[in-house]
């Protein structure tokens, strides 16, 4: 794939919307495109997360270990989905296992590349911090809304 294709893909990711061409180019140039085969694990739940992934082609199934220790399908990531965005900011552990539902491609964005973006374009830090904060608040609200299911 061409660099321009990766820039176009990244521009559709909500976290990166509003970044200019140079900023997206920096990410696209430093990111790594990887093929994934159906059934291949992209990462495992509880493993350290040093990068995020954008689904470029195909679908990725997201599993979480259930109370009985059996993995349960929780969601499916389609092209344009950013997986493990918090890993771009700090060391976290993966909250799910990601398995390719079909042959596809992902774009791997290492934390070090993301930090370089923030160093070279400090104004981006405020924008992205606000977006990440909003995403966390949305998750907290969704969890609170489901609290009744667990009582």
TrEMBL record:
It comes from the Bacteria. Residues 15-118 form the Cyclic nucleotide-binding domain. Gene3D superfamilies: Jelly Rolls. SMART domains: cNMP (SM00100). InterPro entries: cNMP-bd_dom, cNMP-bd_dom_sf, Env_Response_Regulators, RmlC-like_jellyroll. This is Cyclic nucleotide-binding domain-containing protein.
